[in-house]
Write a structure and sequence with these properties.
single chain, about 130 residues, mainly beta, ten-stranded antiparallel sheet, 1 helix
């Protein structure tokens, strides 16, 4: 019965600065589908969120998309994407003010090096601090 189905539940710590949600698939397929982990640091205006596929027997079980704005240095934000079925990861770091950024995606660039872009979103040299 849809009205009695538990669609999601969540937990957070006492301070309210980290927690998670578990999302269920549907009333007809009553199993966990997605876990959402989150953190926040109100004093520094930073945080992160990660969506992980936890569907049992799913080909993407363990895959995730993650975002955070708690980096220091040239880049203040990151995004990480893990494709479980293909076993590859894409890492992206960028700066929300200057718009510079970098990406590491071995499945695209065929190496483990960072590829950078400048404030105009054009390919650019990666400084030593970007490695």
């Amino acid at each position: 019965d849809v009205k009695d189905f538990l669609w999601f539940y969540g937990v957070q710590n006492e301070e309210g600065n980290q927690g998670y949600w578990i999302i269920y698939k549907s009333p007809t397929e009553n199993h966990e589908l997605l876990r959402i982990d989150w953190t926040r640091d109100e004093a520094n205006n930073t945080g992160s969120i990660k969506y992980t596929n936890i569907e049992p027997e799913g080909t993407e079980n363990g895959g995730y998309i993650e975002y955070g704005n708690n980096l220091t240095g040239l880049y203040n934000c990151f995004s990480n994407i893990y494709f479980k079925s293909q076993n590859y990861t894409t890492n992206i770091n960028y700066n929300t003010s200057t718009h510079i950024g970098r990406i590491k995606a071995e499945h695209v660039y065929f190496n483990q090096n960072w590829q950078c872009w400048n404030q105009y979103f054009l390919d650019d040299y990666c400084p030593d601090t970007a490695k």
